[in-house]
């Protein structure tokens, strides 16, 4: 199966593209499984600790580029009243 990435993904993650694609696909899979709910970084708790930094970068990239948490989905509020991401 061929890996499809955007030019911007390639530019941002060029040295670790294969690992990024795995992280991206994991996050997109979680988003698609429950796209009516806001996907937080809490979903990364199940990722091995050594892989989390790249998964967090991928999450931030996907969020910034509108690939996850788009539409009418609202971020959950934390107990402090701040938005939990």
Automatic annotation (TrEMBL):
It holds the Pfam family SWIRM. It comes from the Eukaryota. InterPro entries: Homeodomain-like_sf, SWIRM, WH-like_DNA-bd_sf. Residues 1-79 form the SWIRM domain. This is SWIRM domain-containing protein. It comes from Dunaliella salina.
């Amino acid at each position: 199966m061929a890996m499809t990435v955007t030019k911007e993904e390639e530019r941002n993650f060029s040295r670790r593209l294969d690992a990024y694609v795995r992280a991206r696909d994991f996050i997109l899979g979680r988003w698609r499984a429950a796209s009516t709910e806001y996907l937080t970084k809490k979903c990364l708790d199940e990722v091995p600790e050594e892989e989390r930094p790249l998964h967090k970068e991928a999450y931030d990239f996907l969020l910034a580029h509108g690939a996850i948490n788009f539409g009418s989905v609202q971020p959950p509020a934390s107990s402090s009243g701040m938005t939990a991401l």
